[in-house]
Every structure is written in C-alpha cells, then in structure tokens.
Predict the 3D structure of the following.
Amino acid sequence: MDLFDMDDVVVGPPDECSTPLKEWRLKLQAGTLTRNDFIEFFKKESPKYFDYQNELDTVKCMFKEALAKEEIIDVLVEFMLGDNPKSALEKLRLEGNTATVCGKVFKNGEPTYSCRECGMDPTCVLCVNCFKRSAHRFHKYKMSTSGGGGCCDCGDNEAWKKDHYCHLHLDNRKNPLESKIIGGAVLERSEICFSAILAFCVNYLEIEPNASLKCLDGEGLELDGAHFCTVLYNDESHTFDQVIQTLTKIAKCRHKEAMEIVAAIDREGRAVVKCDTFKACNELKTAIENQMIPPSGLLTNLRNNQSLRTSVLHINSVACQQFALQLLSWFQEFLVRHYLFRKTFSELVQQKQESFCIRHILEYDVKLWKTARTCWHRLLISGMLMEYENKMVLAQEFSRRYATMVEDFINDDHDHAFSIVSLSVQLFTVPSIAHRLIAKEGIFDKLLHTFYYVAIEKFILNRTLHFSKNIASLTFFKRANYILYDLRYLLSLKPDVLSNELRTGFLEGCKALMRVLNVMQGMESITRQTGQHMDYEPEWECAFNLHIKLATTISQVIEWASTDKTLLHKLYKMTVRALVSNNFIVGGEEAEAKSVAGHVANCLIYDVSVRPVSIHLPLTRFYAGIYLHLGTHDLSYDCLVAETEALNIKMTPREIIEPVLCTHAMIAQVAAGMWRRNGYSLLHQLYFYKNVRCRVEMLDRDIVCLQIGASLMESNEFLIHALNKFNLIGWAQSNYESKLAESPLDDEFMRQLSMIDEFLELLIVIIGERWMPGVSLVTEEDRLRKEIIQLLCIKSYSHSELSRALPDTTGGNSDSVFEDVINTVATFKKPVGADRKGVYVLKESLFEEFNVYFYHYTKEDKSKAEELQRERRKAKKELVCCPPPMLPQLTPAFTSMANILQCNVFLSICTLTMDRALDIRSRSFSESHVQKILHLLGFAIQEELSEHYPFLSFYERAQQFGILDKLDELARCPRLEAHRDFVLWTIKRYKDMQAKQAPAAAAGPSGSQKKTAGEEPPLTSEEQARQEKETRAKLAAERRAKIMAQMQSAQKSFMKSNAEMFANSDLEQDSISTGASSSRGAASSMSSTAMDWEDISDESLEEQGAAALVIKQNPACLGPNRAHYQSQENSFKCILCFENCSINPDGPPLVSSAFVQTSRVILTTPSHYKGKCGMHVSCCGHVMHYQCWQEYYSNEESKEQRRLHRNRLALSQGHNVEFHCPYCRALSNTVLPVSEPLVGLIPGGLPGVPPAVSSESYLPLDCFVEIMRTLAGELSAPAGDNTMWQYPSVLRRSNVIGDLAQFERSVQLIAKPQLHATCMEVMTSFNKALQNAMISQQPNAVTEGGVGGEAENPYLVFDTCSYTLESLEIYMYTMRKPLKVEMPMRHQTCTTNLVRACALYSSWAPQRPELASKLLDTIFNQKGTSVLEWDCFRMLVQLSFGVLNLMVRENEHTFLPSGSMFDFYMLQTMFLANVTKAVICFDVEKQLDSRRAKEEAGKAPTELSQLAYVEQLPSKIQENMVAFYRRYNVPARMRQLVQQKEAEEKHNQGHSQSQNQEQTVVIPCELQHLALMLEYVQCQMRAFLRCACLFYRCLTDVEFPDTFPTEQPDRFDLMCQYLGLDADMGVYFDMETVYATVMHNFAAHPHILRQAEQCSLRYGDPVEVLPCLRPLPELKPLFEDYSDLINSVSDIFCPNNEREEMKTPTMCLICGKVLCGQSYCCQPELGKMSVGACTHHAHSCGAEVGIFLRIRDCQVVYLGRGKGCYVQPPYLDEYGETDQGLRRGNPLRLSQYAYRRIFMQWLGHKLHEEIARLNDNANVAVTQWHHM
Ligand SMILES: [Zn+2]
Ligand SMILES: [Zn+2]
Ligand SMILES: [Zn+2]
Ligand SMILES: [Zn+2]
Ligand SMILES: [Zn+2]
Ligand SMILES: [Zn+2]
Ligand SMILES: [Zn+2]
C-alpha cells in the first residue's frame, strides 16, 4: 500500500509570485492567457542556454539542452498536466493507450524487416521490437537497414495480409481511447501550449538571410556589438573537401577545426562559423559567397556553380532556433504518449488561418535546413500518421500541394530523404488512401501532369521528346523521377472493384499517361549513317531512364485495366485514338503492291535504312499490352473496330505493326553490320532493349504486337509485309539464284544472307514465343517457369544470379511466386566447400522444353545452351540436335496465327531454302537457314500433332509441297552433315504425324512401304558411320587413358622432387582437410574441437609407460648421447637464372625471398603487451643467387619508385620496398640467406664422424652455471678492456675445475667459418628490414634492450626468430598438427633458413655486452624479473645466440650454436625455469575442481596418470617435492597465509593476551596432489618443448624420430627424449643434483614471494605473470544471427560525439571494439597524418593489420599498411551466398567455416599477402584505405 497519493497533495504557492508557471495559471483563471505569453517566454529564455567560445579564430557553439529541458520544457509540462507531471505521465503510460500502430520513426542504419509472405508491398516494414514480437519472424522475411525517415507499419491493417499486429500493439488495441488523466482542463491547457510551440517553431526556423533583424523586433540591435553569427548551410552540390578548403582559406580555420565544422554541417545541416559584429560576420558571408568553387566535374547540378549558402543571424535568433529544434523533438515524443494529444494536435494544424497549418508546414519545408526538416517530418509522422482519419487529412493536403512541393524539391538540392516529398511513401502506399486520392483528388492525373510540365515539356520538339543535347538534364531528371516512384506507390495495389468515381479518376490519369507516351513514341530516333561516322555519340540514357521509371507504371495501369471491362474498353479506345493521332512512321506513307508465291500485299514503303527509326514505341507497346486482355472480357478487335470507326478513327493491322516491324528490321540490319557507323550508343540501346531491366515493356511487347498482326492479317499477307520490310521479296522468288548469278558476291550479298537469318529467327520468335498470358493459354507462372527453364539450360544458377536474371515485375512481390515456381522446375544443390554457392539445377525431364532460339538469349547464351544440350543428348544417346519444344495452345484471339505454318508463302520459303541446300551450285545456301527452316517445320509438325487447331492441315499441305521427299534428300546431303540428326528428328516427327493422319496409308503396302525401304539405306549407312565413329572413339579413349596414367605417375615423381613448388597447394589441402574434419563434428565449434584434441592427450599419456621402453633407442639431438645428422643433398636451381647451385661456403651466396611484418597475433593478453609487438618472418623457400636477386630487386625498386612518383609520394625512409617472389609471387620485402646445415661447419661434426670424445670430457652443468654467473658479473663491471670477458680469464675467475680443452670441447669452439662477405650483407639488410618494419609501427620505439635507431641490434633478429617459431607452434597447434606431421614447405624452409641465419649471424654480429649481462643476470643471478614473467623460449634463443661469442677474441675463433654441450645446458636451464614456473603456478584446487566437473558431466573418472609414477618414487624425492610445493607454490602459499591470518585472528579473539608463538598452518599435500601437479607441469611444458624441438631440429639437423606421433598430440616424454632431457620428473627434485639447486634459485626470486603474499598483505606492484602456455589467439565470437549483430549496434554513438549515431559501425574482429569507420567525425592522427578510425585502431590492435566487419553493409575488410581489401564476410544466407551491402536482404547466419578461414589467415600471418593478392588480381578502383 502506498503511503499517500502524490496527486492529492496540493503544493502551496511559493513565496515569490513571479514564476512563469504561477503567472500562467493566474492568467488562465483570468481568461487572459494567450499563446504569446509562452512565445515571449521561449524567446526570452532560450538565449540563456546558448554558449559560444572563440578559440583561435574558430568558434565553438553549444546549446545546453539538459538545462533548457529542465527550466523551460518541464515547466511547460507541469502547466499542462498539473502539479505532479511525472506521476501523471507514468499513469498515462500505465493506461497503455499509446497507439495501435507502432509508427516508430527509423534512424539511419536501423534494421527493418519485411515479410515476404504477408507484406502488401516491399515498403511495408517492421521495426525490430515489433518484428521480434510478431508472427512474421517465423515467415520468410527480408532484412535491410533503413536510410532513416521511414516508420514502422505494425498495426496498419492495410500493410499486411495477415498478422497485422505484434503482441505489443495487439494489446494496445483493447485499451479505450479516452483517458482518466487527460480531462477537459488538461486538454484546454495543452491546446494553448501546443499552439504556442507550433507558432514559435514555425516562426523561428525558417532560413532567411539576415533574418534575425526582422525576427527580433528592435531588441539588442546595436550593430557594432559582437552579437552576430555567420551560419553556413549544407548542400549536396559541394564536396566535403571544397567546403573545408573554403573554410581554411576564407574563414581562416585550421584544417582540423574546418573538418569538424564540415562534419557538423553534414550532420545537422548547418553550423556557426563565426561570432562577431554584424560587419565582420557580413564580410565573411560575402567573402564565402564570392568564392568561386570550380565545379567538381562529377556533379552536374543546377546548383553546382552556385556559392555556398550562408546567412548572418543575431545570436539570440540562433539560440531561439536551437531551442525550437529541441522543442520539436520533445514535442514529437510527447505526442506519441496519447491519442488525445494527437487529436488536439491534428485539430490545431487543420485550422487554415494559422501560420502552422498543414499547408504551410508542407510548403515551407524547402526553406529549412536539414535537421529542422527532419524534426518537422518526424512530428508529422507521429502526430498525423498514427490515426487513420489524420492520415487521410494529411494525405489530402499533401496531394493538393503536391505540384508545388515537387517543384521545390527539384530545384532544391537536398537528398530526397530530407524533403517533405519523401512523406509520399507513407501516404500513397496505403491502398484505401491511394484509391480515394485517385477518385476524389485526381492525384493520378496530377502526378503525371506535374511530371509532364516539370520534367519533360521543355524537351519536346515536333511533338516528340529529344533529350539528346541536354547531358546536364540527367541529375535534374533523377529528381523529377521521384514523381514516377510516387505514381508507382499509388497504383501498387489494384482494387477488387472499381467505383465509378475511381474509374473516372483513373481514366483521367490514363489520359495524362497517353500524352506522355505520345511524346515518347519515336523519341531519340536515329537514322542510319552512311559514309561518315557519327560526329559524337548521341545521348541515349535519359530516354532509357525515363522508360525504366515509367515501365512499372505502364504495367500497373494495364494490370488495373485487365480486371475491369469498362475500364479496358475505354482505355482501348483512348489508346487507338492516341495511336492514330501520332504519325511516327505511319503518317500517310505510300504503299506498293508486292507479290510472293502468287500472293499480293500492299506494303508500306518506309525504308529503314535511310529514314529515322526508334527503339522507343511505348504507345504501340501499350496498345499491345491492353490488347492481350481483350479476350478475357469477350471483347475483340473486330467488335471494337466498328466502334472506333464510328468515331472516325481508323487503324489497320498493317499500321499497328509497322513501327515495330521497322524497329526489328533496323535491329536485323544492325546485326548484319549495316549500322556500323552509328557508333556505340545504338549498340547500348539494343543491349538494354533486350536486357532484363527493360524488356518487359520493350522487346516482349513488340513480339506481342507482331503476333497481333500475324493473327489479324491474312497469313500470306503478313509474311509478305515482313519480307518486304527486310528487303527479302527477291529472295523469296524462285528465280533468285539465277538473278544472283549475274551480280557479284560482295558485302551486300553477305548482308543479305545475314538478313535472311534474322528474318527466319524473327519468324521463329513470333510463332514460338507464346508463353504470354493472352497469347496462349498460359498463366504468369507459366511465363516465369519458361523463363527459368531457359536460363537453367545455359548453366546452373545460384539463387542471387537467378533472381537478378529475372524481371522484377511487381516490385519484389513476385518473390514468393518465384520461389514456388523455381522449386517445381529445379533442384537446389547445397554448396560444397567454402567458396561455392548452392546452385539450382534444372530437372532432367525439362530439358525437353529447351528452345535454342529463345528470344531473351544473347548470342553467347545461345551458343552455350546449344552446346550443353548437344552434349546432354549425346550422353543420352539421343539424336544430337536442338529440336523445337511443344508449344502451348493459342487463345481464340490468336488462333489464326497458327495458319502461318501452312500458308503458301511459308511453305514456298521452306521448299526454296531446302532446294537451294540440295543444289550444289546454289550460292545463297547457308546451314543456319536450313537449321531455322527445320525448326519452323518442327513447330508446324508439332502444332499439327497437338490437334489444337481444326483448321490446320499441315500434313496435306506439306505433302503437296513434297516436304518429306526433300527432307529425305537433305538427310543424305553431305553439305548438311552437321545437321543430319536434326533432319532425322524432323523426319521422325513427320512420320509420327503421317501415322496419325493416315493410319490406313501407313499400314497399307503401297507407297509408304516403298518409301521406307528407300529410306532405310541412308539411315543404316548413317548408323554404320555412327558405329564406326563410336569404335574409333572408344579406341582413342583407351589410348588416351593409357597416356594419362603414364603422365600421372610421371607427375607424382615430379611432385616429389619439386615438393617446395607445391608447398602452397599442400597448404590449401591442409586447410581443406581440417575443414572437413571440423564439419564432420557438425555443430562442434572451433574451441570444442580443440578440446577434443586435448582430451586425446590425456589418454595418450596413459600409454606412456609402455612407450618408455621404445624411447631409449631413439636419437636425441642434444646432450651427451646426441645423434648426428644425415647428409642430404643440397642442390637447387636458381629460380632466376635457372642454373644449378648448391649450398657451400665457397659458392656464390644464395637467398630466398622473405616477408617481415610486425605482429601481435600471439600476444593475446592486451595488458601485457601494451604497444608492444613481435616481428614475424615468412619465407616461401625458393632459392636464388644473391646476385640474380639484386638485379631483379633493383628493377622492382625502380618500378615502385615510379609508382610513388606518379602518385606524388616519396619513398619514405625506412620503407621496405615490397616485391614478389619471382617464382611463386609470394609477397616479400627482404631476403633471408640460405645456408648449409650448421653441423657441416663444425670440423668434428661432419656427417658420419662419431663424437670423438666420451661424455666425461665435457664440463658439467654446474660449471656452466658458474661460468655464466661469473660472466654476468664481469660484463656488468665497469668496462675495462674486453679481454677480461674472454673465456680463459672467465674460467679462471669462476674457479671451475677443468682445463681449457674441456671447455672448448663443451662449447665446440671452432675457427671462424669462411663466410662470403655478401652473406653478412644479406643479414645486415635483413636486420635493417626488421628495424624499418618495427619503426614504422612504433616510431619512437626503443627496441627492447636499449637501442633502436640506426645501430644494428642483433637481439631484434633473435627475437624475430623466437617469435616466428612461437607463432608457428601456435598455428600448428590450432591446426591440430603434431611436430612430426609433414610441414608445408614454406614453413620448413622458413624456420630452417631463419635459425641457421641467426646462428651464423651470432658468430660475427656486433656484440652487445650490456644486453648479454642483463640477460645473464636475470637468469643466473636472480636480478631483474622472475620466471613468472619470462617467455622462457625467447630467453633460450637469446641465450643461445647472444652470449657465448662475447668470450672469444674477434676474427679468430667462434662458437657456432649447433648442438654443443653448452647449447644443451642452456636448454636445460630454461627447461628448468619453465618447470619451476609451472610448479609455482599450479593450483591444486582448480585442477581438482575441473576433474570433479568432468566427472559430473558424465565423463568416466580419468585415472591419475602420474599417480603410479609418484608412488614408486623414493620417499626422499617425494618429500622434496612436497617441500618445494609448500614453499614456493603461489596458490598454496596464498591459502596458507589466509588461513594463518584467520587462525591468528581467531586466536587473538579467543585469548586477548597475545602469544608470540606463531602458529604455522600446513597446507595439505598428498601423493594424489603431486601426481596432479606433475601432470599439470607436463601439460604446461607443451609450447616450450614444441618450440624447442623446432628450434633444435633446425640447429642440429637431427630429424624427429619415427616414434613422434602424427595423429595425436606431441608427448612430453618423447619430446624430452629428443631434446636429450630427462623425462623422469623425479630427477629434478633430487636434492643431490644440480637441477634442484637451479630450481630453488629460480623459485626463490623476491617477485614470486611477493606474488604469493600479494592477496594477504597487498604491497608492491602485482607481477605480470606470463603463463607457460599462451592463451590461444581467437577472433571475436560473433552472433549466430546477423540481425542480432545489426541490432547490437543500432543505437551506438560516435565516440567523438555523443549525439551522433555511428554511420558505419565497424567492428574489429580481433578485439571486438566497434569503431566509427570511414567517417569524417573520427579521424585520429597517426604520426602526422589523420587517418580513419580503423587504420588507427589496426595500428595498435593488430600491429598494422586489421580485420574489420563493416556491420551495416556486411563486408569484411582486411587492412594492411595503407592497403586493404574486401573479403567474403562470414555470414551466409540459406542458399550459401553472401550479401555484401545487404542488397538481397535474406536472413543471414554465421558460417563457422567461413569465419574460421578468416581466422586461419590471420593466425598464419597471411593478411598482407592476401591483400596484395586480391589487389593484384582485380583491377580494384583505388580506394583510400587509410581513410577506412
Ligand atoms: Zn514497430
Ligand atoms: Zn508492433
Ligand atoms: Zn508474415
Ligand atoms: Zn641465379
Ligand atoms: Zn617463392
Ligand atoms: Zn565518429
Ligand atoms: Zn581491435
């Protein structure tokens, strides 16, 4: 129960009575309150919140919105709602009467969802909240991102076919409209407030130059005070750079500030650039306006040459405007709260006399700037669109003002989204509103009328449109075309029944349409050029754009008319009238009689080759469209002809088809090469004529038009007309050949042959292309089906390719139809592999329906499809040809078209062609003519067989013409060899027909018998020939197979010998095989597969005991029992000069190209490596002479220099020039030396020579430690002369017992190897390349150890070596590859070359005693860091290379690290260090927990693998272990300290008298715990041991033993064995050995003790623990569902500006951070350059590489140093396709496979390479990647 209701409390009046609230209330009571009281209040108050600072010539303004809200708006609310507005609003919310429609206005980039099943049209969308709560989420939906400004249609009855409401808005429906809270009084007060708000905003927001002077009547107008601002406005015609330039030049802003201002202008539409006196401000304004900005070329716009828009305003007036904006945004949100508020609002704006009436708001939109406009638009949407009545009111006002608004919009230059006309989509797409507007407001007519006058009238010349000379009209036209979009919305849904009023309104619109079509008929006509080429390419795009924009409307109008007989009837007459009035081509032409085959026709004489023709015949095509629907309403041409003639409108079929026939004759002539001189523009036009985007209302209608002609005219006459137009009357005469003999065989003749082809093809199309509703008895689905079948005959299509290849007839709504149809004709083949898409494959049986002459095929389509069909039929052992398909039955209106196939002219053409084919002397013979004639005959036969047409008696007619005999002859004709199968097919079908026609004759023994006998021979001979062919083919195939087998085996051996050449392909196979195995685990994600692998390791460890026996015999690469390497042949071919070369110290030096890069891939804990990065080397391993390479390189270098010079860049210092490996094109930027095995350089170490001395002759480990300690001390002592470091003196001082020879043996001191001088040069340049790379990433980096810069730092090389090996180890581990698995060649050669180079380098590299001393101190003297902080492997490499050579005098001897005893000791030392670290870090509780968890998860309790081992250890060692654990183990110590403290406290509480006796708590440690610990340690040693194995293999060239596993993870014991280490862990805890001492030394480091005490005592800095096993690198896990990802960033803000939403949120896939990509708002500086946020982030996050996901357009970007590329995103739709840019909108899901591929590329350091590869292949437009 509440204490009391706040509403009941009456707040007493405050002491002072002058608060505005009080004043208003008093005035209200007195009845004197007016809206002016509020307006004055706003005006007075708002300047208080405006603040600006002049800072170095740049002004910074800001409006304190939060304060203004509190002090102005909240007061207003309190006045309206009463004393406790908060609780009133809360109650209002609980009443739940917001609205039954959602109406949420979308922000830019917000995801929207449309339902493909239920949406009325594609503009119907849901916001994410509604979508998630609606039934549509289970339907087939599409997703896209809003451009801002639209609103959610949830709850709109007219937007959805079903499921109109989401749960939320369904609930709202139940609530009553009235409210208990909003009473009459509240409404009365609200009304005054609302009107004040509206009046204030309308008054102040308008942009007027110098407006402030007028607005602020007389107040504070002293012109010399600094009270004025110069304001700069946004426009779309100036580029960012132009405005920045203006600001820096004229307003003298600094570049950075100028960029900020420009960003603000772009965001808000305006910005204050100066605050000063009126004079100063006005001068700036004039200067900016006078600034001439050169047009930027690309933007041809009306406003382009205009100056930037500026104004000078009083500061107070700017303040009022800022407040007005805030007020409007608040008001919009306030209106959403209740229906009654909106009601009040709508009543207010309907008052016509007010300044804020709708009319005014609509019309003054253009006078506002961007943000102000958006605020009003949103207000209108929230205030007027939620209730149907209001919507209607707005729609009516909108349509009444339409013409003015559109004109304003066209002359304005803001984007459509920022214009009030963009509201049309909210109004015109509501069917009932649209219909009402058409019926009552004549909106259809008005739109077209406006379009006519605004857009096209000025281009009309001689009653026809001519855009030709107005190139600039393009932009202008684009804007005008929005009218046509509106028209499309308006007509998108046709009503079921038309009222008279609607019909009349519609017909009015049609009249306007006729007028537009009339001027389009014959537009941009062309005349054939002869002699000269065209002077210029005529403009043609405008006309096509107009067509494309209008085509949908035309289809819609025809669609509307098709269902209403009256409408159709009237529209038909209207069209005929328009056609008659248009005299393009058919304006009173002469006619002439022509005769063919005894038939005469009066042909129109219009010579296409000399007179103008046009592609554009929209009127004729509209007629054809209307005509198709006559039949369904029992109307016909004949009955309508009588009617029109009564009106004195005469139009014969001849006149109807004439323009189309002319156009087609022209197209044929173009194909025949007669229009060559007309240039490309004509070819472009013809391309689009046929293209999927245009053809529905172009080519398709033309064919229908010709079919209409064919059905209305007498067949012979029709053919004669067509022949005449193609100039082929002569060819159709029988004396053609004899006449031909007289004339020469010139070009003219060839053209004629080609024209014949074109004519026959047109005839095939007219007869065959009848999958058109109205022409034959088919539906729209059949039409689509036919289209898809024909497409799939060309190839298999992916889903996106297919939907692109099909016309978008009903604005995307055909989508579900498409889906239904496609599934009946094709099967979807799921994608295989990562790169493939899923494809549709045509069902086998449907190949029967293939038509090779399909009219939408291009030439290439045709030949591809034909070839496929022939192959298919060959495979099925059918006749190899492409016979015509069966045709659907014609509708009654078109039936007579079938008669063409039996008329005299047709048959005479057929026989003439066949005769000429048979006549050897004939000159006009062509195979393609015959092929087409056969196709036509095939049609005829099939039509006859179908028995659809009783009048058709093709068989009899064909017999009269002796067709069959001629066919038989053709079958034997050698000239027609290629088409024999087609002839045979025709004969077969002919006989089918014969059998059907005359069954008696077929059975009878007479003529037919004889005939068949006559036929047999050619058939059998044909078959014989075929058989022969087959056997020949079979033999050939066998022979081929044999050769192939031989070649394959040759290839295999070749592959073996050239393994490195196939390194790359191996690699690919690797990734494929891992992909397969991961997909085998189906749902298993990356991490879980890695887990599986770890599990195996447990099991394998159990087998250890058995394996231990085997181990003994295995070779070790280090230590007293080391093996020696087996010599391999080292000969190569230089890839540049192709000469043989072998590695030896005397030969010319060899190198291999390599790539160095900075890397952070394996540095996954960011806290640890702040700013640090490693250096990684990759190397393809292809060998070349150093000399050869230098030549190659200097060439590449000068190429690069030329390139940079072209781009006006200088080769920066420290820039590594990139080049490609000349052999494999691998990206490279330096070279690595290729050297022989190191052991080969050791005199005693040559292969085959056994170790000369026994193990006793070496110094022992403790001596080594002692020597190192001494050396460290010596090195750090103040430098005297460096002879004191030399080993004899060091040995002496370290008190080591033993002689010098023993030492020399132990370290393998050798005479300094003879190295080629250039070899050192290579290493120096390699070192330089590393430094360059490092410096460019970390300009002020002082490389670890002190010195960067110019000096050569050998430690950089050594660290590169360790980093490269460590990343390789992690890479292989992630790929689940043990060491023994065959490594890709490039990894193998890379590690070998690198390690050998380092070893050689160490023998003569500049010495760095200070670094060595630090290193030795750290390791041996416990100075510096503790083991916890070490990367033990890295230190091992440094130790191996960087120390020993300090002890020899230069130029005489050297230590070459190659597996000496000291090398072994170093390994042992670091091994012990790592073991110590593992023991110290071991946490017994954690391990026990995880074991328990495993058991609980149902896994069988695993045996403690080490328990048995621990149990058999001597008790002394066990005790040592326990002691070591208790003393040093950090978690144990911590627990002990905590418990001790607790005990002490308890103790202190219990007995107040203190006892000094210290109670020691003893941490339990049982054998089981020890076993766990050993297991843990072995596991933690993995990375170190694997790296060490890789390292020492390269150093010693001792191969891994065969016992190394290839399927399972590497084993601790085996690796120890190989490295010569003792795998018996007990040994290391034996106090007798030096091991234990070393470990105690490591463990006793003060940092470790501090770490242990840290939690209890809290002192000192925490130690940064580097775990033994680095955490595995991984990319950011992504959402499964792409829309979740989009939502996650839908309200994310720019880090630089909290008010601005991110435009292109871009996620770093390495760390997951979301950045403002490629945007002016975020351009941090890197070095001295400002770069994009991603580039900046990549620099530190990925050490100059970055992987980014641009979330809104679903694209993945790889960024490298100033370069980048787009790669396939990891999100795929159900068809396995990506959707870059979200164009298709199918739901997308994360593909683990694709994501893993990106991951592996990153992990393998292949991003730079991938970027280079992709930029190499594609001619990518130069992208400014650094702005990304
Ligand atoms: Zn919604
Ligand atoms: Zn909803
Ligand atoms: Zn749905
Ligand atoms: Zn060479
Ligand atoms: Zn290569
Ligand atoms: Zn930003
Ligand atoms: Zn990152």
In short: Residues 137 and 743 are 74 Å apart (CA to CA). The chain has a mean pLDDT of 82.
